[in-house]
Amino acid sequence: MQFHLNGFQPGDPEAVFEKKDFSVSQKDRALPQTVDVLIIGCGPAGLTLAAQLSKFSDIKTVIVDQKPDRLILGQADGVACRTMEMFEAFGFSEKVLKEGYWVNETAFWKPDDKDPNKIIRNSKIQDTEDGLSEFPHMVLNQARVHDFYLDLMKKSPTNLEPHYSRKLLSVKINNSENQNEKHPVTAFFEHSDNNKIKETVSARYIIGCDGARSVVRKSLKLSFKGDSANQGWGVMDVLAITNFPDVRLKAIIHSANQGNLLIIPREGGYLIRLYIELEKLNANERIAHKNVTSDHLIAAAKRILHPYTIEIKEIVWWSLYEIGQRLCDKFDNVPVDNEDTHIPNGFIVGDACHTHSPQAGQGMNVSMRDSFNLGWKLASVIQNKCSPNILRTYSSERRTVAKELIDFDRKFAKMFSAKPKTANSNQKDNVDPKEFQKYFEKHSGFTAGTAIQYYPSIISSNSKHQHLALGLKVGMRFHSAPVIRVADVKPMELGHTIKADGRWRFFIFANSDKPENPISATNALIDFLRDNKNSPIVKFTKPYEDIDSIFDVRVIFQQSHREINLEKINPFLLPLKGKLGLRDYEKIFCIGRKNGEDIFKMREISKETGCLVVVRPDQHVANILPLKAFNEISEFFDKFMTKR
Ligand SMILES: Cc1cc2nc3c(=O)[nH]c(=O)nc-3n(C[C@H](O)[C@H](O)[C@H](O)COP(=O)(O)OP(=O)(O)OC[C@H]3O[C@@H](n4cnc5c(N)ncnc54)[C@H](O)[C@@H]3O)c2cc1C
To answer: Would you say the pTM of this structure is higher than 0.70?
Structure first.
């Protein structure tokens, strides 16, 4: 898809003739006085959370931002493979695939040993290894990601729209002895364009998605620890003409003496982003005070690219920043000493609790995935489906991820900003371009977001039965693989059945018995789930709810689709649902044999025994169990689910 040929146009590239009016403000709508969830900030973190909660009509959610309207330009643009899997759950991955840039290959450039004033290509590598995810690594303007979430919220059952021009001033949480107070959070606002207009909102929970200078973080008295690397960088989105051959590849360029440059090709075929290294800063010196202009950035880019040339035709957006890594000790308002007795009701998410360098493209991704972790937990607690204890796992799970990110980023940013080792320059701090490339490749699973693993907790089991499915690690995201849906013989990804709807998934990988065998281990498990008083489905689903409204059971058989006779299948797999009691035909799958893709082989699942894979609403594997482990299934859910 090509666009921006005649200059940059914000918004939906397919709506070329639509008047793009970004001035419609929601500021005249008064804030409600009481809500369940109050979200501060319409960045990627806030919008992911709002989009998740907007699906639940029984939850009153409000999202505010101090800005007058939605983002139009700039900020982050990297969308990692794991984030694409999450977008699939929200239902807009295909829009990103269509509109965004696909990062397939990365080029590494270094000084030419023969003439270090010139740069020369060192190597090209595949950006993400095969099989890491069914989705590619993508690049798309953060503003468009916001648009997709905003559209989704507006079309949701709650028709949720942000309240703009609302600046949060402070937050007070009444966490005294009375833990039963319904709305313990009070938030104080003023209108961004008129500080005489004040508003107050009471909430059950407040979520600070308000970026690096978070007011929520300060109000919750959470300290942001870390340092600055005293290194200034500039970033600009431009339409340009250049003879640099790798301009449509992600290109990492280390020059001998002129600094370093990262080129990120952007959506639409013409736009590019340049990350340009500026000079080192002294301690306490700020890049914002150095009077750096866009002309300085262009001049630096030209010097680094020598002998290639670049002529900038249009600057769409530019900004300056300093590299630094900062992290909070806790991402919620319960002090470590009170963790066993108190339940959090204030949380911080995204840049509010961790910041790092933008070159590794993690800021937007990790922030959105923080929210994906928190959203279903909040919803399940508010809807009385789960014990409030699960809210404690947000900080422990996501802080571990953020800490790993900070440790990775500290080294990555240092190597990125270092001078390259060359035949003529071999100082102690110089970095061999090959070493940098190795570091980049070694951490590709981490930067893609697919290597994240949550540790055992009440919602994530230990690895006792891991041997039953070695390719689906407990604690990691469910790694999708192709299957055939039996009823309509549709080839599809099994992981794409997991939507951002707060439901748990039971993937039953059948053993080799025939599907119609009534005494097979697979059918015994299905009978247990359907009828037994200890079954989580029987215990936690209300009689008037659809049978799959809390737990969505899907079975994957080893036989081919023609060998599976729907007339003889356990009727629980063809449930009657909805007002009209219509039959759901989309629960039964089998191995896709046409292209030799066998999900059992790909994910190392025992064909002899089969197994049950339990997947959380945020797509992480919570447990792997033998088909006959009825007691263990009950015990796992009894720890955190509530009878409503
Ligand atoms: C100017 C800028 C440039 C960036 N450039 C890049 C880049 O080039 N590459 C990259 O990878 N990443 C970049 N980032 C970082 C990336 O955008 C963030 O990592 C990502 O947006 C984090 O998402 P978030 O939702 O946690 O926070 P943010 O995106 O920062 O969103 C926070 C939101 O909260 C609102 N807010 C803040 N305080 C209040 C308040 N008191 N009351 C009401 N609302 C409030 C803000 O207006 C904002 O909309 C940039 C960030 C900024 C701010």
So the answer is: yes
Give residue-wise pLDDT tens across range 74-100.
Answer: 799 999 999 999 999 999 999 999 999
CA of 349 to the centre of ligand 1 (A): 11
Task: For 263-299, write each residue's pLDDT tens digit.
Answer: 999 999 999 999 998 877 887 788 777 889 999 999 9
Ligand 1 residue neighbourhood (C-beta within 6 Å) = 40-46, 64-67, 74-76, 78, 142, 166-168, 209-211, 215, 235, 319, 350-352, 358, 361, 363-364, 367
Question: Same domain, yes or no, for 506 and 585?
Answer: yes
Q: Cβ of 538: how many Cβ atoms within 10 Å? A: 16
- Cα 74 to Cα 58: distance, rounded to the nearest angstrom: 35
Contact 346, 216 (CB under 8 A): yes
In ligand 1, the atom with minimum distance to the C-alpha of 166 is 43
Q: What is the dihedral of CA 378, 381, 386, 391, to 10 degrees?
A: 50
Task: Identify whether residues 555 and 615 lie together within a single domain.
Answer: yes
Average pLDDT along the chain:
92
Question: Do 181 and 54 share a structural domain?
Answer: yes
Is the Cα torsion angle 274, 280, 286, 290 positive or negative in sign?
Answer: negative
- Are 301 and 218 part of one and the same domain? no
**Is 109 within the bounds of a domain?**
no
Instruction: Please report, for the domain that includes residue 73, its CATH number.
Output: 3.50.50.60
183-219 per-position pLDDT tens digit: 999 999 999 999 999 999 999 999 999 999 999 999 9
Structural domain range at position 548: 466-638
Looking at the structure, do residues 275 and 365 belong to the same domain, yes or no? no
